[in-house]
Design brief:
Elements lengths: L8 E3 L9 H10 L11 H7 L3 H13 L13 H11 L3 E6 L3 H10 L12 E4 L2 H11 L3 E4 L2 H6 L5 E5 L11 E3 L2 H8 L2
Parallel strand pairs: 1-2, 1-4, 2-3, 4-5, 5-6
Helix pairs in contact: 1-3, 4-8
Length: 190
């Protein structure tokens, strides 16, 4: 097979593989905000929490707290879906923005994703949004799934970009929408 025609898949972690919606709702309430589940996707949640210091604190708890970071479940169908991708033989990678790489690996282990599906060979943690593009280009990613349109807009080297929209709130998106892991598997054709 010509390498230029080979499918290489990239996944975001938070909001695609991990479902933080209920945890975001609970944390928002703790900080004095009433947030509907449909307001928990990252780009909406950011706008909903007006106090950006509180927003940063919520994010820190959600991703880095030694107890709370482990409370978010996998998206429904994610584990079986990732197993199907692996079984297909299609190369796949996790590219996630995480400050604490060790905590993220602990989380992946807790969710039975490490090392059977993700490991040192196919997992990359970056700090800035543009770093996702740098890594995607380096890995020759052809298909990428993220829950933030802003991130997808930076992935200039990726031909096929999918916006994960579990609550159907991005009707005006320029990207192909996937609402669940069944949709992901369908568009990836694995």
């Amino acid at each position: 097979m010509n390498l230029s025609n080979k499918k290489v898949i990239g996944f975001d972690l938070d909001g695609v593989i991990l479902d933080h919606s209920q945890q975001k709702q609970k944390l928002a309430k703790r900080f004095g905000y009433e947030v509907e589940l449909t307001e928990t996707p990252s780009s909406i949640f950011y706008k909903r929490i007006e106090d950006k210091d509180k927003y940063r604190e919520i994010r820190s708890i959600l991703y880095d707290d030694p107890i709370e970071a482990f409370l978010s479940p996998l998206m429904s169908g994610a584990l079986d879906g990732l197993k199907m991708v692996k079984d297909s033989g299609t190369p796949f990678y996790l590219i996630s923005r995480r400050k604490k790489e060790d905590r993220a690996i602990e989380l992946l282990k807790d969710k039975n994703l490490w090392p059977s599906l993700f490991n040192e060979e196919n997992t990359f943690f970056v700090l800035e949004p543009i770093d996702k593009e740098i890594k995607a280009k380096e890995l020759s990613i052809t298909h990428y799934i993220d829950d933030e349109a802003q991130i997808l807009s930076l992935l200039n080297s990726v031909k096929n970009k999918y916006l994960f929209d579990q609550f159907g709130v991005y009707d005006d998106s320029q990207y192909d929408l996937v609402k669940n892991w069944g949709d992901i598997l369908r568009v990836l054709n694995v």
